[in-house]
Structures are given as C-alpha cells and as structure tokens.
C-alpha cells in the first residue's frame, strides 16, 4: 500500500524524500514501488519519444530516398530528381516554417509546387527529349497538329 504522504507528488519529489529522510529506505521503497515504476516508465517513454524524433526523421529520409532510388532512378531519372527535390524541399519547409509560420508555409509550398508544375508544362518543348515527358510530347504534338489543321483551314478559306 502506498502511503498518503506520497500520493499526487512528482517522481523526483518522492525520490528525494526517499533518499533524504531518516526512516527506513526499504519501507519507503516498498510503500511507493508502483509510483516509482510508473514514474520511471513515464520518464523513459517521454525521453524516448523526444529524442527519437530526430532519428525517425532522418531514418524516414533515408528510407524514402532508397525507395525513390530503387523505383525511379533506373527507369525515370529526371522524374526521380524532381520528386526527391520536392520531398526535400517539403521537409526543409516543414522544419523551418510549420512550427513558426504555418500559413506562410502553406502558401510558399503551394507556390513552389505550382511553379514546378507550370514550368514543366510551359517549357515542355525544351524537355520533350526527356523520357518521362513523353506525355508532354504527345500533348504538344496534338496541340501542334490541331493548330496546323486550323491554320490550314483558315488559309484555305481565305483563298
């Protein structure tokens, strides 16, 4: 049974009372054993969660890089570079801005992603030789052929 003296007190206060009071150390430990183990386990889990955040973050970057590398590097090297740059920039933005400026982070990241997407479609003429932009080449080919047909029709109608 726990003594009422230690109920509701913090682990460190209980530990200091056990060490610095003159009554029997064994009786103090035995009467507060469940409180001591509960507090120790809580402090251990708290430290593990706090210090494991950095490890988990670095390990997730490593695993995602490995998965991206295996999946895309050999088949789609340029797509891999774009996706990995988006992932890294998202991680950097997350670390830098989310905790301090969450709305600024959302705005900047959405602008960044929209710029990446728009640049890929605006400058698709320059990247049509890249294998993963075959869809852009097809899309440009259809657009060009439609424009040529329209231009030929308009020229024939003017003649």
What does it look like?
The chain crosses the membrane at residues 35-61, 67-91, 103-123. Keywords: Membrane, Transmembrane, Transmembrane helix. The relative contact order is 0.05. Helix content is 79%, strand content 0%. Residues 122-149 have low confidence and may be disordered. The protein is mostly helical. It has helices at residues 11-20, 25-31, 33-73, 77-98, 102-122, 134-158.
Mean pLDDT: 60
What would the principal axes of the Cα set say about the shape? elongated
- Secondary-structure-derived class: mainly alpha
Give the end-to-end Cα distance, rounded to a whole number of Å.
106 Å
Largest sheet: none
Strand tally:
0
Number of helices: 6
- DSSP helix fraction: over 70%
Order of helices and strands: HHHHHH
Note poorly predicted spans. Answer: 122-149
* Subunit organisation of the chains: single chain
Q: Beta-sheet strand percentage?
A: under 5%
Cα radius of gyration in angstroms: 32 Å
Keywords: Membrane, Transmembrane, Transmembrane helix
Notable characteristics:
159 residues, elongated, 79% helix, 6 helices, mainly alpha, 0% strand
Give a quick rundown of the structure.
The protein has 159 residues and is an all-alpha fold.
Topology:
Blueprint: H1 11-20, H2 25-31, H3 33-73, H4 77-98, H5 102-122, H6 134-158
Helix pairs in contact: 3-4, 4-5
